[in-house]
Write a structure and sequence with these properties.
Blueprint lengths: L2 H12 L13 E5 L5 E6 L5 E6 L6 E6 H7 L4 H19 L1
Amino acid sequence: MTKSNRLRELADVLGVPVAAFRNSKECYHLHVDPAGTRWILTLDAQGKPIVRRNSGDDGQTSVEECAFLFLRREEETPQRNALIALIERLLTTQLKN
């Protein structure tokens, strides 16, 4: 699957245009829980959006998951809500340009 197809799939899941994801290449911190576990939105080596979960105890990356699968799996968690808010903010910024 190409980068374009992955972005299209994520956009379809979210119900947003693909163009909304084209300009940002940064890493976004979504949430830190009381134990210090951090959820970060970034791109993998192929340019696919992923959510990386870093354990607070040992500091090692424990999980990397496709962003669209993360949205489907997580329910009403602070990290999911933060990802949705970030997507909304990026879309708003993109639509204003």
